Each structure stands twice: as C-alpha cells, then as structure tokens.
C-alpha cells in the first residue's frame, strides 16, 4: 500500500475501497500500529482537542455542564482536556488557561470564571473561547441559562398558590447565578406588592439547606420557600420534616436545576429545569464555529428554562 492510502484509512477518509481499507486495518492490528496524532496535528494545524476549565466539579451546575460539553465534543469528533481550578480568581483561571495552551488545544470552554472579569482574565490571542457566564458578553461568545425567567416562574407559582410571600434560600453571595436569582426574586415580590425578608445564603449543599431550613421552620410566618438549587431544597425539606412540618401541607418548597432524583423525593419536588445538554452543545458549537473562521465576539445565547410542577406546592394553611 502507498503511504497515502494508509493515511486515508487512518484518518477515516471515504475515498478508499472497502477491501483495501480492511487490508490496511488488518495490518495495523497485526503490527500494533496507531496513528501519531501529534504529528498529524503539526501537519494539519489541528489537535482535535478542546480545553475545559471548571470550578468545583462537585457542584451540580458545573458537573452537568461539563458532562454536556463532553458529550457534544465527542459527537463533533473531538476530545477534551479538563482542568478543575480550586479557586476561581482571575489569576488561577489565567494560569489554568496557560497550562492548557501548552497541552495543544484548538479552543477553550470556560464553565464559570467568577469572580474573574473580562478585563482581568488573560487569554491567548486568537484562541477560540466560549464562556458559560453572561458577564463576558461583548468580550467572548457566551451561553447562559435564563436565571431571571426561572426565578420568576418559581416565585409566581408559589404566589399563585395563595402564599402571602416567598422566603428564599439563596446560593453564595459570590455566585453570579445566585445573585441573579436573588435579584429576580426581590423584583417580583416588589412588583407584586408582597413583603420580603432578607434571603438566607447557603453554599449550594444539602447541609446548608438543612441548617437554614431549621431556621425557617422556627418562623410561623414561613409558608413558602424558593431554594436556589435542588440540593438545598432537599436539606430544607428534611429540616421541616424533623420539626414536624409537612411539605406541602404546612410549607411549600420549590427548587432549581431539576436533578434526576428530584422527581423521586417525597413529595416529588417542584423545580426549575435547566437544559444542560443544550448549554453544552452551544458552548462547543461556538468554539467550532470560531475554528472555521467565524467572529462571534458579541454572540450571547440565553437558554430557556422550564418550571416542572410536582407535589411540593399547595395552598397555605394556618400553622
């Protein structure tokens, strides 16, 4: 076989006869041959690899977004190189970018860069980048879930059930999505003429939801709780149960994210579903389009969310 024929088979080209392809594959298997991807990258200028930077992969949003990016990258015929930064400061993220750029990547996906800013984050020139953070709009193409709409749907659902107001178990004050949900919650209550109290900030964990839930259970005015994610909602529900309060008969609870386990809780949790698979596809697509020469600096995609009504909301009853 000519070197050109072997090259065509190893790269998956279609213009090779079936019997010839099989002979080449049989020879490769017998010899234990595998293509040299590094040499191919030097020749073609493409490593078929996308770098991914994430923070705290144990958190639901990050892990599910990374999972979606991996699936979309695989479908496009690429692999990923993942770096999980311990602290999301600009210097740490910039250092992670430099490490990835030395590992031969074609583009970069940043899941979240808080508290870095577009001006503080140092990225290599001409590197295709997509960011899952709306603050980077106008600097890099971005993808973000519609946090405001999801919050309004959740809070309005509780108000429509007849609750006088809605208490909020929020995420960390340093989190951009958590801040956006707090602002949307406050705005909707104000626009509806409903009283509001200061949000209780957790750290996204079920334990923090449980601890804050015990405080809420001690307040007889609490009849409805909007938790900024499903894990904290689970903690709130356990705390209410231990204090002798029933969900939803005594206190209604709504979460955010729609974890797979949410529909199997008792009662099943009403929550806001984020479309993580689409977020991953959009991020990867933005990088690939830039690799094809498109300029997407101002592109911002807002992915819609959906309220999933289950059994954790009911009209209020006097406690």
From TrEMBL:
GO molecular function: DNA-binding transcription factor activity; transcription cis-regulatory region binding
Range of residues in the leader sequence: none
Alphabetical keyword list: DNA-binding, Transcription, Transcription regulation
KW Transcription regulation (keyword) present: yes
InterPro entries: HTH_LacI, LacI/GalR-like_sensor, Lambda_DNA-bd_dom_sf, Peripla_BP_I
UniProt key word rRNA-binding: no
Residues covered by the HTH lacI-type domain: 1-44
Cross-referenced PANTHER family: LACI-RELATED TRANSCRIPTIONAL REPRESSOR, LACTOSE OPERON REPRESSOR
Protein name in UniProt: Lactose operon repressor
């Amino acid at each position: 076989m000519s070197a050109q024929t072997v090259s065509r088979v190893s790269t998956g080209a279609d213009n090779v006869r079936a019997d010839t392809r099989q002979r080449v594959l049989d020879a490769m298997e017998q010899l234990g041959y595998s293509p040299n991807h590094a040499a191919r990258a030097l020749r073609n200028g493409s490593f078929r690899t996308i770098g991914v930077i994430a923070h705290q992969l144990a958190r639901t949003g990050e892990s599910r977004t990374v999972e979606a990016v991996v699936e979309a990258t695989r479908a496009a015929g690429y692999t990923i190189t993942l770096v999980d930064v311990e602290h999301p400061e600009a210097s740490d993220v910039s250092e992670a970018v430099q490490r990835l750029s030395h590992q031969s990547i074609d583009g970069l996906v940043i899941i979240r860069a808080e508290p870095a800013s577009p001006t503080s984050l140092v990225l290599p020139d001409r590197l295709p980048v997509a960011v899952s953070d709306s603050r980077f709009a106008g600097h890099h193409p971005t993808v973000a879930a519609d946090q405001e709409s999801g919050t309004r749907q959740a809070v309005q659902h509780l108000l429509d059930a007849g609750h006088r107001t809605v208490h909020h178990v929020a995420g960390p004050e340093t989190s951009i999505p958590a801040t956006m949900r707090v602002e949307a919650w406050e705005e909707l209550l104000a626009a509806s003429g409903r009283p509001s109290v200061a949000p209780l900030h957790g750290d996204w964990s079920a334990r923090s939801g449980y601890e804050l839930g015990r405080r809420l259970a001690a307040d007889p005015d609490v009849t409805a709780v909007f938790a900024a994610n499903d894990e904290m909602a689970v903690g709130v529900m356990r705390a209410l149960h231990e204090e002798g309060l029933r969900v939803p008969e005594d206190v209604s609870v709504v979460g955010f994210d729609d974890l797979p386990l949410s529909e199997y809780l008792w009662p099943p949790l009403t929550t806001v579903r984020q479309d993580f698979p689409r977020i991953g596809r959009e991020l990867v697509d933005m990088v690939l389009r830039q690799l094809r020469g498109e300029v997407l600096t101002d592109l911002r995609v807002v992915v819609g969310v959906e309220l999933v009504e289950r059994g954790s909301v009911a009209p209020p009853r006097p406690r």
